[in-house]
Write a structure and sequence with these properties.
- The chain has two domains: 8-119, Rossmann fold, CATH 3.40.50.720; 127-244, Dihydrodipicolinate Reductase, domain 2.
- Helix content is 34%, strand content 27%.
- Strand 1, helix 1 and strand 2 (33-37) form a beta-alpha-beta unit.
- The chain has a six-stranded parallel sheet, sandwiched between helices.
- It starts with 7 loop residues before the first strand and ends in a 5-residue tail after the last helix.
- It has 266 residues and is of the alpha/beta class.
- It has helices at 15-27, 55-61, 72-77, 79-84, 100-113, 127-136, 157-160, 177-183, 189-197, 247-261, and strands spanning 8-11, 33-37, 50-52, 65-68, 88-91, 117-119, 138-147, 170-176, 205-210, 217-225, 228-236, 238-239, 242-246.
- The protein is globular.
- It contains ten helices and 13 strands.
Length: 266
């Protein structure tokens, strides 16, 4: 297995991937992003990074690990091939795993390649407690996500209300995590993380809120079960280059990548 921290690749090179690269560089880490897989129509040039437009070419380059920072489509189209080739992948677009067929395909690909897929915790905390509580039995898990109206632009919320004119807290979605992950892939990946850690996509209740009084993104996870109950609330600042993403989500990607290379997990 390739464990070279200097041969990390990313899929996509948007705000998340650039934030990850810049943070690693500022820290002086020996972990370096030195390759990227981008769409055929993209035109991106960055010193020290070689860009590929074909997943097979990236495999030939020989990355030690690939961080998917692109889209649900990238998980579907590229990640199984990487896993079958024996390359570990860290997935950011967690909402894609709401597709049961894709999740099974990824599992088979990882088994074939003796590789590993890791999902990031994203902008939410307490998933370790949720996974532990699941062992005793969970009765109910509820996730509520609140963001400023501007963070919901480009989403289905625009069809139900005038986001720019909102004067009060407005619920833009109520349903389960499978529906939320499908309808809001750029905004609600955290719902998928909660679902995977807890009672699954169909049983995890989700409420999404646009609040003009919000100065950042907040995430509230409530769980009840045989273990007892807990409520975890996080108030996150948005990523400077992308208001749809919490800064903590970007940091969780870096943390997952650093853990990948640790000899001792703490």
């Amino acid at each position: 297995m390739n464990r070279d921290p200097g041969k990390v690749a990313v899929i996509g090179f948007g705000a998340m991937a650039r934030s990850l690269r810049d943070s690693l560089n500022r820290s002086g880490s020996d972990i370096k992003i030195t390759a990227g897989l981008i769409s055929k129509g993209a035109d991106v040039e960055h010193d020290g990074i070689v860009f590929f437009r074909d997943v097979d070419a990236l495999i030939q380059w020989g990355p030690s690990v690939v961080v998917e920072c692109a889209s649900h489509a990238a998980v579907r189209d590229c990640v199984p091939t990487l896993l079958r080739a024996g390359i570990d992948v860290i997935v950011v677009s967690i909402g894609s795993l709401g597709d049961a067929a894709l999740l099974n395909a990824l599992d088979r690909a990882a088994e074939h390649g003796k590789s590993r897929l890791t999902v990031v915790s994203g902008a939410v905390g307490g998933l370790d407690a949720l996974r532990a509580a699941k062992l005793a039995g969970l009765d109910r898990v509820v996730y509520t996500g609140t963001k400023p109206p501007a963070a919901w632009k480009g989403s289905p919320a625009e069809k139900s209300c005038d986001l720019s004119a909102l004067a009060q807290r407005t619920v833009i979605f109520e349903g389960n995590a499978r529906e939320a992950s499908s309808l809001y892939p750029k905004n609600a990946n955290v719902t998928a993380a909660v679902a995977l850690a807890g009672v699954g996509f169909d049983e995890t209740a989700v409420t999404l809120v646009a609040d003009p009084a919000a100065d950042g993104n907040s995430h509230h996870v409530s769980a009840v079960g045989s273990f007892g109950s807990f409520d975890i609330v996080l108030h996150n600042k948005p990523l400077p280059d992308n208001p749809k993403t919490s800064w903590l989500a970007a940091l969780s990607v870096e943390q997952a990548l650093r853990r990948h290379f640790q000899r001792i997990e703490l």
